[in-house]
Amino acid sequence: GENVEQHPSTLSVQEGDSAVIKCTYSDSASNYFPWYKQELGKRPQLIIDIRSNVGEKKDQRIAVTLNKTAKHFSLHITETQPEDSAVYFCAPHTGGGNKLTFGTGTQLKVEL
Amino acid sequence: SAVISQKPSRDICQRGTSLTIQCQVDSQVTMMFWYRQQPGQSLTLIATANQGSEATYESGFVIDKFPISRPNLTFSTLTVSNMSPEDSSIYLCSVGGAGNTIYFGEGSWLTVV
Question: pLDDT at position B2, please?
Answer without folding.
Answer: 82
